[in-house]
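Human: If only I could read backbone structure tokens as easily as an amino acid sequence. Take your time, and here it is.
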Amino acid sequence: MNFILNFKFRFCLLFFLFLSFHSIANDDYNKKSNNLITEAQLVEDPTLLLRLFIPALIRNDVEGVGLLLSIYEKQKKQEDDELLIWGNAIIARKNKQLDKSISLYRSLVSRNPKLVFARLQLAIALFENKENEAALEQFDKLKSENLNDNIIDIINKYSELINHQNDWSFNGGIVYLNESNINNSPKLGVNTANWKSTSKPESAEGFSYVGVAEKKLSIYKNYFSLLNFRGKGKYYWDNSKYNEISSRVKVGFGYKDLTNEVLFLPFVEYSWDPNKNQQNSSTFHRYSNAIGTEVEINNWLNKQWKNSLSVELSRQSYHKTKLLDGNVYSVSDTLLYISNSNQYWFSGIDFYHKEAKSKANAFDRFSVRTGWGQEWLQGISTRFQVGYAKRIYQGAIAEENNYWVPDFYKKPQKNDEYSVYITLWNRNFYFYGITPKITWVYQKIDSSNLFYSYDKNNFYLEFSKYF
């Protein structure tokens, strides 16, 4: 019975969306199309052709586009003409060539991010191709635009359909890593109180990876249960002692409507790493495990402002280094402002509290961050973020009466941590739904312990996909 009701509900919504989308009228288009106009007249009068063709594209009038596109093509327009791309995207979608249609829509929106109706058609094509996360991202961007109530209603109905999906969802990514100072070594030769840094920065080349599988199951109206598997790690082929693997399993429940989402997710997590005393060790050993709970609250304050709050409580246990055992508490809040469908700004604050049996390993970390994302013309996209954090340890590394070490070892360590992230990608350049992104990262640590101060910068190449 639930399956039948769910099927009827989805069928009625889709039928409503179909009727609503095709009811967006253009009076000039209707008047012209009701008159008898010959192909010869349209060829002789390009202005009249455009007055009919553009509204047909906006209305997603498949029949009208099919008739007018062939005439428009005969005018020997360039292959990269935006109207040609748009028309061919609509025809490809009509012919169930969704991958081709999505590719054309992406190319079009990349060239001209202000074409909101093309972006809407892209979002619907993504939904039909079961690329729900990508579709929802486009719908969220469209909400920031000044659209009429009919269009907003269409967006909300599609978003509601996505929220009620019970299918498995998967996503994953690979990032190429080329670390210049993976061991966070200070500059060679740093010295104080007859102590001198002798460690050298170690390089490492490899990749990080992440994979997520998630299953939602609707319980009642907007309530659902959630099962989430996440695995991630790093692999360096020339410095394997820094390899790592971790996995987290979350089982919980949540609530989601068009403006609010609440998740309560108990979890268990395990981590493994190789023997760091062996340069080329390939055998992994259990490093730590944790049990805890995540709570996430996401709220659209209006069509442009969104707040995301995340709270995590856990108990960490280490297999060998028992002095690190302790509770961990973290809170993160991010405020997002989407100024329009091709620009957004964000700011956030974070607090991380780590307890440990050894006070020298227990600390509090406060951080702030802000950033800006932009879709430019010709498919260029950028994301910029800067951050600052203050880390304060609860205990000193050495005792007060230890006369063999510098004074800063006898006081709790304090760090000022700075970071800059710049990501660049081209939305026109992708394969199998994957768009490569290149990121430059700069990190600087100013520590009260001179041997923990360092700075480094790295470039990363990222490949990720939702499917």
About this structure: The first helix runs from residue 2 to 22. Residues 1-34 have pLDDT under 50 and may be disordered. The longest strand covers residues 204-220.
